[in-house]
TrEMBL record:
The chain crosses the membrane at residues 49-67, 279-297. Belongs to the CobD/CbiB family. NCBIfam families: cobal_cbiB, PRK01209.1-4. InterPro entries: Cobalamin_biosynth_CobD/CbiB. Its main location: membrane. Pfam families: CobD_Cbib. This is Cobalamin biosynthesis protein CobD. PANTHER family: COBALAMIN BIOSYNTHESIS PROTEIN CBIB. It comes from Actinomadura monticuli. Pathway: Cofactor biosynthesis; adenosylcobalamin biosynthesis. The keyword Transferase does not apply.
Length: 298
């Protein structure tokens, strides 16, 4: 565990300084493999989706076992863990994307902000005004603090390199085929449910770390509003962020012609542009708190 803990913390440091690899990103490579597999396996049925998800996530785990064993044999397990952690984390890139959105809105370039929003979430940006974009960004930064940062660290602490790779594979598949649409209603069911299960504990760990970093109001709103969200996991993190930032999240969201009314969380006003920077700062604090916790518990 010592090598794993040091590697996980080292991966957080690498991500903080380097962000995502600009070329030959392993997650992007996995996405290309998954897209090719979808063309081969796809069918409008759950069982095909189960096979698709099982093969890809299982394959990622098998690769992780190989890397783990080889790295231990050659005495570089800590370095290998750090490298894989860096590859699967996305906290720094999440923060950079949030800050880019903030700068666009601060200079009044709503068109640029709308164009960039799909980098963060699947929400339809066409009808959003500046406050609407700001809310979308704050909510996305909150939810992805768990998905991009804390959850990989949790699974890395539990299951080492295989845990890191299997979690990122499951989360990537959820982003690709797990959302509801006529094409993926059945085929994407397994990926979506696996992602829910994989994120159940990490989302609650993230909510707790937001409370630690953000104060007692985060705890109050988390307890009151955390279960209002239709997602069993996103609501935990978004509610905690709403309390910590003193804003109100939730409302009407449009996704490619489909409109959803989300329950509101928090007692403050709707997010403003300045709240994007505050959300990014809180996200970074939570990520480093997670790394510190792993270091303490190693």
């Amino acid at each position: 565990m010592r090598g794993s803990a040091e590697g996980l913390v080292g991966g957080v440091v690498l991500d903080a300084f380097l962000g995502d690899p600009r070329r030959w990103h392993p997650v992007a490579g996995f996405g290309r493999v998954a897209s090719a597999g979808e063309r081969f396996v796809y069918g409008d049925s759950r069982w095909r989706g189960v096979v698709y998800t099982g093969v890809l996530v299982g394959g990622a785990g098998a690769l992780g076992v190989v890397i783990e064993r080889v790295s231990r044999r050659f005495g570089v397990h800590g370095l290998a863990t750090a490298g894989v952690t860096w590859a699967v984390l996305g906290g720094t890139s999440l923060g950079r994307e949030g800050l880019a959105m903030a700068r666009a809105l601060e200079r009044g370039d709503l068109a640029a902000a709308r164009e960039r929003l799909p980098h963060l979430c699947a929400r339809d940006p066409k009808g959003l005004d500046a406050p609407g974009v700001a809310r979308a960004v704050v909510e996305s930064v909150a939810e992805n603090t768990s998905d991009a940062s804390v959850a990989p660290l949790v699974w890395g602490a539990v299951a080492g390199i295989p845990g890191l790779l299997m979690y990122r594979a499951a989360n990537t598949l959820d982003a690709m085929v797990g959302y509801r649409s006529p094409r993926y209603e059945r085929f994407g069911w397994a990926s979506a449910r696996l992602d829910d299960v994989a994120n159940w504990v990490p989302a609650r760990v993230t909510g707790g770390l937001v409370v630690v970093c953000g104060g007692s109001e985060a705890w109050r709103i988390l307890r009151r509003d955390g279960k209002k969200h239709p997602s069993p996991n996103a609501g935990q993190v978004e509610a905690a962020f709403a309390g910590a930032l003193g804003v109100r999240l939730g409302g009407v969201n449009a996704y490619g012609g489909r409109v959803e009314r989300r329950p509101e969380m928090g007692d403050g006003k709707a997010p403003e542009v300045r709240d994007i920077r505050r959300a990014v700062g809180l996200s970074a604090a939570v990520t480093f708190a997670a790394a510190a916790l792993i270091g303490v518990l190693r």
